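Tokenised fold entry reproduced for everyone:
>
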Amino acid sequence: MDYLPLHFNLRAAPVLLVGGGVIAERKANLLMEAGARLTVVAPECQFELPEASGPHHWIARGFETSDVSGMRLVVAATNDLAVNQKVSIAAQAQAIPVNVVDQPDLSTVIFPAIVNRSPVLMSVGTGGGSPVLTRLLRQQLEALVPDTMVRVAKYLTSRRPRLKSFYPDIDVRRKAAETFMAGPGIGYAERDAWSVADDYLFSDLGASRGEVYLVGAGPGDPDLLTLRALQLMQKADVILYDNLVSPKILDRARRDADRVYVGKRGGLASTSQLSINEQLVLLARQGRRVVRLKGGDPFVFGRGGEELEALVKAQIPFQVVPGITAASGCAAYAGIPLTHRDYAQSVRFVTGHPKNQQVDLPWREFISEGQTLVFYMGLGGLAEICAQLIRHGKAVDTPVAVISKGTTPESVLVKGNLETTPGLVARAQLSSPTLTIVGEVINAPSAQVALQQIHD
């Protein structure tokens, strides 16, 4: 280990910053955020110090060796190598930690990249060897650690004295805390429901009762998963997923989580909704953390409402994580605005899945001008949908776009009108899942550019 990572308490501590440029300003902001009393030494200073007559002040001259005396930390942020070397030598002569920006050979301490979720702080560094890699690693940590950890940290800090009293044995106390962090109790701490969280932290409830997360997986592209979806997929013990969840999305889940397929495919054996509801309740009662992973958004033609009702009835803790629904994702990737002040002032989401070979919908309501229609699961009933719209007064030349496997590399788009689209789709042999968009928005300039790129 080249460096020992430490978190330095600088609250009210005197710190010397040599330099007054842009880089020095970044260090000044960081040091002041940590509570340091800052002295800036530089002939010119391009930034202002708050409370200039108070804890922070600027000395308008060049560096002198005596400036380091009495300092807790020294930072050199100039573009003059000779000055930086002088600062480093002076600080080390008095055994004061010193950092010279971008010169680790002159430094006894380095500034890591910081993920600030105070009171939770995480730092990552590469020994000053690769700032770009350090920033990349910090970005990955930012994505994995939610802001709600601030609330969890505050909750656990407030409960620490009581925890020590309640669990005098350190091993028992550690196990209780680990059980709490792995169970639904942490979710209540994240939501500031501290009294409910206490029920899990100060009892064995967390070990005997699990939680269910209804998570939207988005329209297909794994990069469209929300951060919250990814975080919960990483902590799940079991994942129940449907037909619209691709292997690439499942690859983002916790490696050792059990995966249970509960999808529904036309013409094949299907898992009933009642069976899915029962599995969710049973697994949670076994103390397991369950992700119910659903394509798109759980509450947009995803039957998430029915699953939620079953969880509420069984008194199972749950969280709902919305996802990017297929209408938004697929239309955006095709450059089709669902609303546009020149073409459509409203949008309507409709399930186009035929029941008993019939698509029974309020067709007359769909004829209004300035409206975009989006049909989910409409491949099998596409010919009937187009015929009914024409029969009820929609112009035959109304633009139609059918998108298969939208947002994925296998995406295919067919464009026509109400009269021609069924034949075009049949010849293209599109496969599910598909999304059908009907309306003048398909003629919007942005759509024309995107569609041309797709065809090219």
Q: What stands out?
A: The domain at 327-455 is CATH 3.30.950.10 (Methyltransferase, Cobalt-precorrin-4 Transmethylase; Domain 2). The CA atoms of residues 20 and 45 lie 4 Å apart. The chain has four domains: 1-111, 149-207, 209-324, 327-455. The longest strand covers residues 211-216.
